[in-house]
Amino acid sequence: MENTKAAILCGGTGSRLRPLTYYFQKTMLPIGNSQKPILEYVIGYIKHFGINSFTLLVGYKAEQIVNYFKDGIQFNAQIDYSYDREDIKGNGGALINAYLAGKFDGYSNVLIYYSDILATLDISKMHELHITNDFDATIAVSDHYKLPVGVASVENNKVTKFEEKPNYNINSTIGILILKVSAIKKFVNMAGDVDIMKDMIQNLVAEGKVGAYVTNDFWIDVGSTDTYEKLDHNAIDSLFSKYLI
User: May I ask the CATH architecture of the domain 4-141+171-243?
Assistant: First the structure.
C-alpha cells in the first residue's frame, strides 16, 4: 500500500472518558497487561498491513502524543503531525487542514482511523476492494451491532418480550475508512463544523462513489468510561499483542 498514508484522528477532548481525559489524551490511555497506550496498538495494527507512514491529527493534549511517538523511528514508522486550528472545526476540518498543509502530497489514498476504535478486520482486503472498484471512499461496516442497552417489546403497558443487549443485523459503521486524496479536495471550501461521515461521506454517497467493506470481525469502541473500565486486558493481549512493535 505504498500510495496510501494513514491519518489517525487524535485531537478530540474525549468527553465520554471524563474524568480520565481531564489528565490524559484519550489515545494515551493504557490498555492490555503491558499497559501501552491505545494509539500504540492502533499504529502497530495498521503497520501490520503494510502502511508505514502516518499523520496524527492532534489537538487536545497533543504534547502527550508527540512526546511519546516523536517521529516514529522507534516504532519503525514515519510519523508527522497536523495540529487542529480554531478556524477549521470538526474531524472533517482536521482532515482538510492536514490536506491543505500538504501532509498527503504524493499519496493517492488516505486510511482514516478513529483512534478510539480497536478492530481486527483485514485492512489489505478493504484496500483491494477500494482500488479495484475505483471508489472515492470505502467505509468499513460491521454486519451486526450489539446494542448497549436492553430492548423491551411492550403491549398495553405489559412487557411481552425482553432482550438484554441484543445483536441487530444492521450494517454499522466502525470508524475506519479509505478516502481518495483527490476526494478530500472537494471539501476544502466547506464552511462550518465539518464531519467526515455526516458531511463528506454523505455527499460522496449521493454521487454514487462510496464502497462498503462488510465484515463480521471483532471491533470495539473504547471511547467511553464504561467500555474502558470493562475492558478485558487478557482478551486485548490475545487479539492485539501480535501488532505491537
Answer: Alpha-Beta Complex (3.90)
